[in-house]
């Protein structure tokens, strides 16, 4: 389980078109207020499980690397070298299919050698990891059954939720046993949470605590609205600010995979939120939408006619007001179809259909491990394509050469290069492909002047040979 972070977010261990909704009714008298949630709990609680994981980790003894220790004890100290340590953790999960498909958080099962699922009635089963996606913090497990069927929850369209809806959170906080808490939906489309790459969370005041990770957030019709994943706290306990991954993202991870990897749609465009200053400069009455500042050649966005300067207002009939919501709306659209996009250009509101396609492997990655005598020796590099950018979680235009791995102890490691660095220039020459970078390094040129993009920063360093 991911450790608690005090005074910060604490990680706890395809939408349908909008339609008219029936009027909501508030309690009319004290008797109605005293109605019980027990019927809903009896129906949904059996589908919420405990997820136990076990991981064996090799731990090095720091004394073994001490030259003075080796001098006195020699090979006799080998018995004090690396040892195996077993780590166990506990989280929650939700059965979403009668055949034993379970959804939980990625961080609950990360690195696990063994996974076991325990039902509310104490039945226990081994489970295997089908798919785990760090970028959404979701994982899919398959319980190994012998012809049995299990209770499960249906996924709700999380776009139907409204602030004020009653919800129940079910999980196993602190390992005390299955626990149910109630609350309301406190907020929707929370994007500035900083938990995952696809941040678009349901906020609730239903008490969520460590051990609830992967548990269910359900509505009173007994359907799954989200997967509980994090809280905000100054003390380590619930203060009424919890976050759940919406069921629509859960659905995408369930159906949008190829083997162990999740395949997400590729829009090929990015932008920034329209601030009050931008809205005033463009003559807009309200600051809303996403101003496109990067549209990639050959992308679905370009083929649909979108271009830099357009303001995207809606995707799939849902408003978007920041880059995170734009990415979420497109990422949860079903692959293979189209999605309507409403945008503003020169004051005119226009709608187009954008194809929902997977990111292409273009150019081919040409994964190469660099050797020789230069600052990048020991780095594994590849051509950055839209497919590779999505795979590694790269934010930014998918162009150039990216470092995918750095061998420990190599020259590149000692020089400070990291996985995710994009090599922009070597000695003033733009690096547009693996082949060009290899040629530039083969020519020599110490001292080397190398520019890389790391996150949102561009770093330049002059390095010796």
Number of helices: 11
Quote the CATH topology of the largest domain: Thrombin, subunit H
Could you name the ranges where pLDDT drops below 50 across 5 or more consecutive residues? 1-11, 13-19
Look at the structure and give the mean pLDDT.
84
Q: According to CATH, what is the class of the largest domain?
A: Mainly Beta
Domain module tally: 3
What's the shape?
A: globular
Classification by helices and strands: alpha+beta
**Percentage of residues in strands:** 35-45%
Architecture overview:
There is one protein chain. With 465 residues, the chain is of the alpha+beta class. 15% of the residues lie in helices and 36% in strands. It folds into 3 domains: 1-16 and 34-263, Thrombin, subunit H (Beta Barrel), CATH 2.40.10; 269-355, PDZ domain (Pdz3 Domain); 368-463, PDZ domain (Pdz3 Domain, Roll), CATH 2.30.42. It is built from 11 helices and 28 strands. The model is unreliable at 1-11 and 13-19 (pLDDT under 50).
Top keywords for this entry?
3 domains, Pdz3 Domain, 36% strand, 465 residues, 28 strands, 11 helices, Thrombin, subunit H, seven-stranded antiparallel sheet
Please specify the SSE layout and strand pairing.
Layout: E1 8-11, H1 30-33, H2 38-44, E2 48-59, H3 67-73, E3 83-97, E4 101-104, H4 106-109, E5 114-118, E6 124-133, E7 138-143, E8 166-171, E9 179-190, E10 201-204, E11 216-219, E12 224-233, E13 242-246, H5 247-255, E14 257-258, E15 261-262, E16 269-273, H6 276-281, E17 290-295, H7 300-303, E18 311-315, E19 318-319, H8 323-331, E20 338-345, E21 348-355, E22 368-369, E23 379-383, H9 386-392, E24 401-406, H10 411-414, E25 422-426, E26 429-430, H11 434-442, E27 448-454, E28 457-463
């Amino acid at each position: 389980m991911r450790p608690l972070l005090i005074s910060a977010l604490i990680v706890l261990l395809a939408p349908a078109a909008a339609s008219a909704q029936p009027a909501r009714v508030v309690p009319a008298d004290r008797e109605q207020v005293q109605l019980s949630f027990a019927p809903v709990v009896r129906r949904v609680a059996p589908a919420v499980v405990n997820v136990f994981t076990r991981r064996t980790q090799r731990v090095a003894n720091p004394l073994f690397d001490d030259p003075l220790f080796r001098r006195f004890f020699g090979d006799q100290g080998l018995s004090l070298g690396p040892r195996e340590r077993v780590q166990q953790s506990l989280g929650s999960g939700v059965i979403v299919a009668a055949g034993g498909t379970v959804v939980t958080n990625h961080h609950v099962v990360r690195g696990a050698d063994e996974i076991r699922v325990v039902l509310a009635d104490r039945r226990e089963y081994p489970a295997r990891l089908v798919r785990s996606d760090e970028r959404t913090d979701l994982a899919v497990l398959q319980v190994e059954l012998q012809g049995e069927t299990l209770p499960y929850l249906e996924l709700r369209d999380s776009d139907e939720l409204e602030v004020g809806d009653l919800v129940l959170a079910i999980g196993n906080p602190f390992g005390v046993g299955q626990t149910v808490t109630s609350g309301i939906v406190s907020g929707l489309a929370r994007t500035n949470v900083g938990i995952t790459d696809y941040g678009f969370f349901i906020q609730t005041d239903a008490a969520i605590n460590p051990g609830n990770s992967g548990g269910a957030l359900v509505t009173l019709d007994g359907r799954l609205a989200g997967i509980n994943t994090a809280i905000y706290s100054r003390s380590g306990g619930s203060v009424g600010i919890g976050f759940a991954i919406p069921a629509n993202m859960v659905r995408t991870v369930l159906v949008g995979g190829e083997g162990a990897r999740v395949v997400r749609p590729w829009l090929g465009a990015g932008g920034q939120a329209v601030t009050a200053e931008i809205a005033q400069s463009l003559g807009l009455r309200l600051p809303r939408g996403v101003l496109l500042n990067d549209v990639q050649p050959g992308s679905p966005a370009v083929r649909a006619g979108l271009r830099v300067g357009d303001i995207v207002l809606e995707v799939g009939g849902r408003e978007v007001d920041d880059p995170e919501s734009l990415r979420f709306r497109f990422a949860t659209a079903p692959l293979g179809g189209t999605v309507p996009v409403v945008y503003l250009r020169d004051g005119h509101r226009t709608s187009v259909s954008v194809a929902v396609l997977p990111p292409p492997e273009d150019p081919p990655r040409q994964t190469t491990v660099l050797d020789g005598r230069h600052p990048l020796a020991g780095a594994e590099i590849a051509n950055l394509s839209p497919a590779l950018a999505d795979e590694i979680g790269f934010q930014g235009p998918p162009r150039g050469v990216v470092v995918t791995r750095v061998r420990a102890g190599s020259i590149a490691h000692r020089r400070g290069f990291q996985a995710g660095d994009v090599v922009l220039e070597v000695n003033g020459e733009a690096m547009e492909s693996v082949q060009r970078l290899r040629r530039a390094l083969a020519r020599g040129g110490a001292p080397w002047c190398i520019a890389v993009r790391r996150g949102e920063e561009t770093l330049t360093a002059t390095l010796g040979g």
